[in-house]
Amino acid sequence: MLQDLRYRLRAMFRHKAVEEELDEEIRFHFDHEVEKYMRTGMTEEEAKRRARLVFGGHEQVKEDCRGARGTQFIDLTLDDIRYALRQLWINRTFALVMIATLALSIGANSAIFSVVDGVLLKRLPYPEPQRLVRIFLSSAAYPKFPLNPFDFLDFRARNHSFESVAAFTRGDVQLSDSGEPIRLNGFGITSGYFRVLGIKPHLGREFDFTEEIPGNGLQVILSDRVWRTQFNADRNIIGRKITLNMQPFTVVGVMPAGTEHPGNDYHAVAYGQSVDVWWPFSFAGDSNRRGSHFIEGIGRLKPGVTIEQARAEMNAIMSQLGREHPNNDAGWSVLVIPLHSEVVGTSRRMLLVLLGAVGMVLLIACANTANLLLARASARQREIAVRLAMGAPRLRVVRQLLTESLLIALTGGALGLTLAFGGVRALVSLLPADFPRAHDIHVSGPVLAFTLLISIFTGILFGLAPALQASHTDPKQGLQQSGRTSTASRHQSRLRSALVISEVSLACVLLVGAGLMLRTFLNLLHLNSGFREDNVLTASLSLPHQRYKTGEQTARFYQQLVRSLNTLPGVQSAGAGSDLPWTGYDENAGGFTIEGKKPAPHEEFHARYHMASPGYFSAMGIPLLEGRFFTEADGKGAPWVLIINRAMAERYWPQEDAIGKRISFEDTPKKDSDWMTVVGVVGDVKDQPNSLNAEPAFWWSEFQASEPDMSIAIRTQSDARQVADGLRDAVHRLDPELAVADVKLMNQVVDASLSTPRFTFVLVGLFAGLAILLAGIGTYGVIAYTVAQRSQEFGLRVALGAQRRDLLQTVFAQCARLAVPGTLLGLVLALSLSRVVQTLLYGVSATDPLILTGASLLVLTAALFASYVPARRASLADPMRTLREE
Amino acid sequence: MTGRIELPQGTLDLLILRTLLPGAQHGWAISERVQQLSSEVLSIQQGSLYPALHRLERRGWIKARWGTSDNNRRAKYYELTPTGKRQLEHETKAWRKLTVAVQQVLEGA
Predict the structure, then answer these.
(1) Segment A388-401 mean pLDDT
(2) Torsion region of A230: left, alpha or beta (phi above 0 gives left; psi -120 to 50 gives alpha)
(3) For chain A, what is the mean pLDDT?
(4) Residue A70 — pLDDT band, cuts 50, 70, 90?
């Protein structure tokens, strides 16, 4: 076996030497043979003739020896490649057009596949990630909701499905050991959190149960990045005290690089290495009060336990809890979702649609290339006829032609790959900032394999039909016909028309897609957002509990800050709010009482809650519809006031005046101070630009509610960036140790929230553009070809008195025979795919008649445009020339 | 050329291996030797010898090296490898069995 391999390898790589040796060997034999015969008295001539007779044809013997070497297949292939290269070199322009077409479409496919591979296919960076699941609660009002800490403790204690479960919740901290204080992305985690993920600390240990006890919480685990950038990768950091939120925290562990956050829903931080520190989550409070939901569950299934089994068990536990705590825990079910689906989430469909779209571009490129090859095959009929007449088997001709198309495809693929390298970088930069696993997107091994595969696949796909067709050339006919007038068979022209029709139909589908994405993007862009984002600077502040122990202190800080911000030059209005529009804020208050109303059975009143200072609404450009904004007077000691949005007014006080109405958060409000009074109604702002409707929402006055974590909004007369320094100074005059984080223009916030639809639109648009260009080239090719073939007929018709217009009509009719069925087929395809894309759209139906019509018209125009040049050439047919040639 | 019989399929390999048993030979000598040994009854197209030699070499039954012939020319010599020797024994036995069996059938009929 080994000997065999060594032999074949030598035969292959030392091809020339082996051939020379064979030559020498045969010559040696022949000379001896001749000598032998000459000794018997023959003349040299006679002896040679005799020897040749006995030996057989030298070339035949050599060929047989090559066969015996077992490298014939490779030798033949090398021959084919040499021949193919010569052919391609002779038809350089032709080869270039095909290679460029394929490079573009293969490159686009590889680039999109890189994204699909990085985001959807690559394993999550945890051991046995298929056993990781996320745990949520679900009810009719809240389909996906965080857990209550005490419910979590019961889940942890009672389940048998999980190896371990853990919970985590966002809680940023401020690090102020040296220099300007900085905000760090922090998470409170229960013990076993990293054990669930399967990641061991690089130094130290993770939290255990003792740290869950209230009072033991001043401990911290650092991320590799913080350890390196803030603590110089100090290996003796374990046990050291660092200042977080102005309190001394003991470092107990450092996580290794590559510790990725599994993503979270509530106060979301992007998936990836986005978390800086982890602190122990402690379970304080009354375990019978389970109304507050703010921690997220994650678990690792025991080997062999399925998601369904875990889901069933968790729901059984939840029903037990519902019986034990009917006030809080009845009516919930448990969601157990594979971590991978949770991470990949909504991007999955978008990516698959993009992959489909770019696949269509590749099919169009294939059809185009096949068409070019077919056209050339008829021009090469003579050459092929000669080869067939010389005795080449038909299979050999097919093989030869397939080698040519594979060579074209592989060259295109190699070029495409270099395009993909650049393309992937561009794609990643276009991706939304919070896109899951964006850092996992590279041109990797699987992408290389994919590119090679689709190159071979396309090579065969576009090469097979022309090759089979050519091999059916009749040598006699092929030789008789002169090159120029050789006519394509009926069958061939039918095949070429079919190819163009399918190209046109695919291009039509992509144009419809691009139209829909454009419409979606424009809808979102020109959405009545409910706020005005121009000239607004935003930032976020988080007051550490250690220094701002009382609500009065917090309220006073924001009161003074807002006051001083409003005096900055160029500022029209400034305020603080618990959140900014379109940033994914989704805090809910449920179960409040509305004076004089009862909720429907099994339902409760609920609404998004926010906090705002005076100046917030005007800075954000949210209009006042009724009543008044907050004032400085709405502070501690004053009656509690609320501002609600229109959605809340319409939900709970339909056809009533909401102003003066009261709600309470006491279970049984008695005195006047238990009630809060609606003093204003503001316009609606949706959670996200593509949310269907605005949620009912209300705002407390910040000076009464005293939320420590607030966003700042400053509206200026001109460029809002100019007040950034003023903002920092104002904050540091009040508290020099406070970090001013996330300083951004509101335009940037809006821009980021539109990046997904923009990404989809740009790519589908790009693919559609490429598609229509290719389909146009395909149409042009076929029409130009037939016009060239029929030039004599056209000349005769002119000679016989036909008008130029008649000739134009003939050509355009042929174009219509391709474009109209193509477009119709495309529309049918687009309609059948409408269900797939509907969820990616906003404010437009996937079967929007305007877009379908527009796309059809565009396709038809492009086809018409493509046949204009050949049509003109036909109409200029010169009867004299035709007659001379006949 | 009358009186000669065509070589049955597969026997050429056996004859070549047998010819090489006494020692290394070059192609022409192998051809002459086969011819002599078979008393010129077997008709072997000399050309078919070379593909067979290459095939045997690939299988590792014989190996080739370049040497100098009697008249001082460079020539390719083939010799049996240990596997080749075993193969020869094996094939000789098989051949004997076959001929005996065929003979029995012929005489018994």
Answers:
(1) 77
(2) alpha
(3) 87
(4) low
Task: Tell me: pLDDT of B24 over 70.
Answer: yes
Maximum Cα–Cα distance across chain B: 56
Q: Is B27 on the interface with A (CB under 8 A)?
A: yes
Task: Assess B46–A contact: CB distance below 8 Å, yes or no.
Answer: yes
A-chain CB neighbours of B50 within 8 Å are 22, 25-26, 29, 61, 64-65
Domain tally, chain B:
1
B73 at A interface, C-beta within 8 A: yes
Residues counted in chain B: 109
Closest chain B residue to the Cα of A63, Cα to Cα: B51
Q: Establish if A20 touches chain B: CB-CB under 8 angstroms.
A: no
SS (H, E, C) A198-248: CCCCCEECCCCHHHHCCCCCCEEEECHHHHHHHHCCCCCCCCCEEEECCEE
Mean pLDDT within A500-510: 92
State the residue for tokens 């992408």.
A447
Whether A28 shows a pLDDT value over 70: the answer reads: yes
Residue A321 confidence (pLDDT) above 90: yes
| CATH number of the domain residue B90 falls in | 1.10.10.10
Determine the Cα–Cα distance for residues A682 and A198; give it in Å rounded to an integer.
Answer: 48
Nearest-by-CA chain B residue for A58:
B47
Cα gap A512→A510, rounded to integer Å: 5
**pLDDT of A391:** 65
Q: Which pTM was predicted? A: 0.74
Q: For residue range A441-484, what is the model confidence (pLDDT) as tens digits?
A: 888 889 999 999 999 988 888 888 888 877 777 766 666 655 44
Give the range of the structural domain holding residue B67, as residue numbers without chain letter. Answer: 5-108
Give burial (CB, 10 Å; 0-12/13-18/19+) of A58.
middle
Residue with tokens 């829903």: A265
Alpha-carbon distance A4 to nearest alpha carbon in chain B (angstroms):
5
Select the residue from B30, B44, B58 to test the A interface by mutation, using most A Cβ atoms within 10 A.
B58
Helix (H, G, I), strand (E, B) or coil at A672: helix
Contact A249, A175 (CB under 8 A): no
User: Which of 64-93 (A) contact B at CB < 8 A?
Assistant: 64-65, 67-70
- C-alpha dist (Å) from residue A512 to A516, A519, A861, B61: 6, 10, 15, 68
Give chain B's mean pLDDT.
Answer: 83
Q: Looking at the complex, report in whole angstroms how far the Cα of residue B45 sits from the nearest Cα belonging to chain A.
A: 6
SS3 A537: strand
For residue A21, the chain B residue with the least C-alpha distance is B76
Six-digit token string for A349: 């469909």
